[in-house]
Amino acid sequence: MSDPPRRPENLTCVAIQNKSTISPAISCEWDLVGRQTSSVVTTYTLNVAGITGQNHTVQSTENKATVTLDVFPFHTTLEIWVEAQNKLGKTESEHLKEEAGVFVKTKPPPDVKFILEESFPTSLLINWTHPIAHTYVRLIYEIRFCPVGAQSWSYVPTGDTAKSIESFRLQNLQPDTVYVTQVRCKNARGGQYWSDWSANATKRTPDDRPTSKPDLWKIIAEGDSVNERRVQFICKDPVFSNGKIKRFDMRIQGQKDNVNNRSQEWESFPVSMSEADSSQQKITFLKEINLPHNKSVKVSVTAINSVGKSPEASLGISEKANEFALVEELKVWPQGGRLWLEWKTFKSKTVSEYVVEWVGADQTDWQRENRSTRHTFIKGHLDKFVCYRVSVYPLYSGWIGKPTSTKAFLEQAAPSEGPFLNVNGKPGCTEAELVWSEIPELSRRGFITNYTLFYTNGTKVHNITVPGNITSYTLTSLSRNTKYDTWVVASTIRGSARGFNHSFTTQKYAPGEIEGTVVGISLGFLFLVLMMMLLCIYKEDVIKENFWPRIPNPGESTIGNWSPDYPLKTETPKESCLSGITVLDVDACDGKCVLEEDKASLPLKTDKYLSEEHSSGIGGSSCMSSPRQSVSDSDEGGDIADTTASTVQYSSVVTSNGYKGQTPSSQPQQALFSRSESTQPLLDSEENLDVPLQEGSRQSQRFPQLNAQKEEDSQPEVEQQERLETLDFGPLEEDSELTTLTDSQAAEWPPAAPMSNYMPQLGGYRAQ
C-alpha cells in the first residue's frame, strides 16, 4: 500500500564556473521523504523562475536534476522549488528565492606564490589572481599555511581577508623554515560555496640569528684509569636555529689540565654539510675529555649560523661523589606505538628540569622535560624490536644529577637466532656442565624470559627450563660412556628460537677414579700390613713361641761366672739319680771309639786336653743329659781360662770318688767340676731340671745299645742283653791318666765286645 508523496526537503542548487564565466546550468539536489514503491512511482519536477517570469522546468524520478538556462543571470533574483507527484497526490518543497550569485561556486585562485623578502626573515608575502572578473562576482578569500611536514594547518583570520585582495603577508613565521600555503574564495555577497583550495605554494623563510640555545649533552664512560671518566660532549642544533648552523663554539671551565691551560678560550667545531643535510635532528660530536672522579667541569656552547650567534647553553658535570640521585621508581612500558615513562622524585624544588635519554644499538638521543613532569612519552624516533636503555637525569641549575635507568622495547618479537651451546671443559662420567652465550642484542628482539635446555641419548628427550639470566647448567645422572645431543631454546613473550645442536660423550671413568681405586687398595694393603706389624709387636712372645722356640743363651748361664775359688753350691742328687756319671756319645761313622779301659793310656797335655765329659747337672738338679764330645782347639799352651772370651764353656760334674773297674767306692768323695770349651749350646734336657733322674739314666743307657747294634748287627739281641747285664762299675784310680791308642789297638777298633757306655770319671778337679 502506497502513501501520497511527501514534501522534498533540503533543496540545494549550485552553478559552477566554466572558464572565465559561470555556467548557465543550475544543478539542484533534495532529500526524499516517505516510502517509495515500484507500484506507485513519484515524479519530481524542478522549477527555476526568474524576474522576467520565465519558468524553466525539468522532471526526474531521482532526487536530483539540472536546469539549463540560456545564460546565467548575474545580478538577477532566482526562485527555485521542487514538486513531487504520484497517483495519490501532489506536493512541493520550499521555494529558494536568492540572487543568482549566491548559487555560484568559482574556481580556486590561480597562480598562488610566495614572494621572498630577505629583510623580513619571519614573514612571507603571498600573491594570487582572481579566478573571475569583479564585474560578475565580488570575491572574498581564505588563507591557510603550515611548516612542511606539520600535521595541522594554521588559518589567517577571516577578518583580514574578507575583501577582494590579490596578496597577503604571513607574519610571525620561523626563519629558515619551509612553509606551504593554500588560498580559496567565494562570493562576497552571501555566497554559499567556497571554491576548492588552490595548489600548494612552498617557500623557505630567510635566515635569522638563532633565538634558542643549542641542546648540549654528554656521554660518560669508564676512562683508561680507574679514577677517571671519559666524557664525550655532543650537541643538537637549537630548536629555533633560524638557519643552517655552520659551527659550534665551546668553552670548558674548571678543567685546566685537560685543555692545555686554555679554559677561558673558546674552541670552534665546524659542522659538516652531511650532518647539516640530515633529515633527522642533527647531533654533533664536539669533544672528548678525561675527567677525574674528584674534579668537576662546566661546559658552555653557542651555535653560529650565517646571521649570528645563539644564546649560550651550559652543562655541569660534578664530582662523582657529589652526584645526587633525585629520581626513583622509574617505569617504562609500550602503549599505542609509543614508549611511556613515569617516575617519582624527591627534593623537587631543587630540580630545574629533567632529561630523558634513550640509548639503542647505535643510537643515542634525549629530550628535555619540565621540572613538574612525572609522566611523558619518548618523542624521538624509536625502532621496533630494539632494546633501549632509558634513563631519567635530574638537572639542578645546569648540573647533572645521578640518573635512574631501565631497559625497554617499543615492541617485542621472537629471537632471530638461538644461543650457541658448548660444554665447559670435559664431560665427566655422570655429569656435564653446559654453557651457552647470550644472543646479541640486535638478535634478541625482546626480553629473554627463559632458556629451555634439551638433551637426549637417542632414546628419550629430556628438557630443563632455567631463568633468562642463567647461561649455564650442569646435567647430572647421565650414563657412562654415552653420546648425548643437546640444544638450547631461548624464549621471549612473543616466541622462541632454537640454537644449534651440540654433541658430547660422557667418560667411562671419572678423572682420578682409577688412581683413587689404586690408592685405596694400596692404603688398604698398607693398613693390613700395619695391623699385622702391630699384631706382631703385641703378640711377639706368642709368635716366637710358635715359630722360633726359645734356645737358652749359654752366656746368661751362671756357670759362666763360676770360679774354683767360689764353688757353686751343688744340689744333693736324688737317691734314684746316678751322680758323677758321664755318658760318652760315640758316632759309628767316625770309625773310632775310645774304650773306657784305653782312656787311661791317652797322654795328657798341659795346654790341651780332650774332654769327653758332659755335665749332667751343672747349674741345676738334672742327673742325666745327652752326652757330647768336646775337644779344645787351642794349641797355644795358654790357660784355658783365657779362651773363654771366644768360646762358651761347659762344665761337667765329676764326683771325687770316681769308679774304677765299674765298682763304686765306699768312701764318699768331694764332687769336682770339669770345664769344657765347647761352643755347642745347652740342650733342653740340660735346662730342664725337673726331668726325673731315672728317665735320664734310661736315656743314657739307650745310646750305647744303639751304637753297639749298628756295629754288631749279626749278634742276636739276647747276647747284647747279657752283655749289658754283666756290666759292672769299677772305681777309677785318682792318678789314672788318659793314654793314646797303640797302632795294634787302633787296628782292632771297634772291639769285638761292646764296651761300657760310661766313662770313668777322674777324681778331683782338672786344671783349666
TrEMBL record:
<keyword id="KW-0732">Signal</keyword>
<dbReference type="InterPro" id="IPR052672">
    <property type="entry name" value="Type1_Cytokine_Rcpt_Type2"/>
</dbReference>
<keyword id="KW-0677">Repeat</keyword>
<dbReference type="InterPro" id="IPR013783">
    <property type="entry name" value="Ig-like_fold"/>
</dbReference>
<feature type="domain" description="Fibronectin type-III">
    <location>
        <begin position="108"/>
        <end position="208"/>
    </location>
</feature>
<keyword id="KW-0472">Membrane</keyword>
<protein>
    <recommendedName>
        <fullName>Fibronectin type-III domain-containing protein</fullName>
    </recommendedName>
</protein>
<keyword id="KW-0325">Glycoprotein</keyword>
<dbReference type="Pfam" id="PF00041">
    <property type="entry name" value="fn3"/>
</dbReference>
<dbReference type="InterPro" id="IPR003961">
    <property type="entry name" value="FN3_dom"/>
</dbReference>
<dbReference type="GO" id="GO:0005886">
    <property type="term" value="C:plasma membrane"/>
</dbReference>
<keyword id="KW-0812">Transmembrane</keyword>
<comment type="similarity">
    <text>Belongs to the type I cytokine receptor family. Type 2 subfamily.</text>
</comment>
<feature type="region of interest" description="Disordered">
    <location>
        <begin position="613"/>
        <end position="768"/>
    </location>
</feature>
<feature type="compositionally biased region" description="Polar residues">
    <location>
        <begin position="643"/>
        <end position="682"/>
    </location>
</feature>
<feature type="domain" description="Fibronectin type-III">
    <location>
        <begin position="414"/>
        <end position="509"/>
    </location>
</feature>
<feature type="compositionally biased region" description="Polar residues">
    <location>
        <begin position="696"/>
        <end position="708"/>
    </location>
</feature>
<keyword id="KW-1133">Transmembrane helix</keyword>
<keyword id="KW-0675">Receptor</keyword>
<dbReference type="InterPro" id="IPR036116">
    <property type="entry name" value="FN3_sf"/>
</dbReference>
<feature type="transmembrane region" description="Helical">
    <location>
        <begin position="518"/>
        <end position="538"/>
    </location>
</feature>
